[in-house]
Amino acid sequence: MIIDSEEAGPVPDTGPSNITRRTVIGGIGALGAAAVLSTGAAAEEAHARDPKGVDGKVALITGTSSGFGRLIALTLARTGYEVYASMRHPHRQNAAPAGVLRRAARGEGLALEVVEIDVRDERSVDSGVRRVLRRAGHIDLLVNNAGIFYPALLETMTIEQVQEVFETDVFGQLRMNRAVLPAMRSQGEGLIVQLTSGVGRIAFPFQGAYNGAKWAMEAMAEVSRYELSQSGVDVVIVEPGAYPTDLIDNARILYRDYLRRLSRDDARRRAEYGDLADRVENELQEPSGPVPQEVADAVVRLAQMPAGRRPLRTLVGADTELLTEVNAVHQRVQNEIMGLAGYGDLIGVRPSSGPRG
Question: Which domain of life does this protein belong to (predicted)?
């Protein structure tokens, strides 16, 4: 669903029970291999329409060991992209998910290669991006997908624990952008897709670090879009709703670790919240939702649009409907303020000028 370029109608009074953190959180998780290896609708449609339409296009995706990242990598490869699927430790703890991608590439004849990138490590990011540029010569599409989540009372989280979330979710995408943008600007075109979440537009209790990271990602992506608008490089945001992935399974592991690491002082703080502290664990219930392939299909559709035609924000999932008005009002006010501040010329993205279109 693309909403930021249109006026949104009134939001129906559906009552507070229809929207919870679990119905709009979205994020990065994992799927079973069988589900992951199903071909997406966008890839099938694109191949049937123009099987050679993206020949020569190169995509780099972070966080492809599971979930949305893996689906996006496979869907783009099936659409015709030369794909570099990055993850941490593909020869060690992520050897199995890396093997899933490699087997799919061999079995289907896909131009897909697994590369090692830890978005928390600047050397790893720079080395991985240099490898892709050496092999492919250019990068047309970067999808920032890597991220982590777990709930907690914000007062009981240490600075180091909050930094851990920001290190992956916020600084990770900044490292990737800094590594890729010089090449994109030099070639006069490129697209960065930032996967955030529905909670990048709202706030929930027990989500202080995660909400803060997603809000920061949204703001930085919007700023980057303005600053790059005259270069031919486009930046867009995809905001998924709730999808059945292993995001919550991973969050349970991190939450148990958080409880084990509570200092005596923070355990006392937590106890003083009484019953409210126990409600944190409600956030660890697995959401039910539609097929996660919808998110990968949305990324493909954005990638196939020309620069200057893509919306800044794209909500994905029927459960994000209540956020359409938030995005529409924000965009209207933001554009007005940009004009008053003398930056109206940076709102629109200039069509790419590079040799590959």
Answer: Bacteria
Q: How far is CA 211 from CA 24, 110, 171, 191, in A?
A: 12, 36, 15, 25
137 with 355: CB under 8 angstroms? no
Tell whether 33 is covered by a domain.
Answer: no
Q: How many domains does the chain have?
A: 1
pTM recorded for the entire structure:
0.84
Residue 207, domain CATH: 3.40.50.720
Establish if 342 belongs to a structural domain. Answer: no
| Residue 304 lies inside a defined structural domain of this protein | yes
- pLDDT tens track, the chain, 357 positions: 222 222 233 333 333 334 444 444 444 333 333 333 334 455 455 444 344 457 799 999 999 998 899 999 999 999 999 999 999 999 999 999 999 999 999 999 999 999 999 999 999 999 999 999 999 999 999 999 998 888 899 999 999 999 999 999 999 999 999 999 999 999 999 999 999 988 889 888 999 999 999 999 999 999 999 999 999 999 999 999 877 666 777 788 888 999 999 999 999 999 999 999 989 888 777 666 678 899 999 999 999 999 889 999 999 988 788 899 999 999 999 999 999 999 999 999 988 765 554
For 175-228, strand residue ranges (E) read 190-195
Q: Which domain holds residue 141?
A: 58-319
Return the DSSP state at 2: B
In a domain, 17, yes or no: no
Residues with active-site annotation: 210
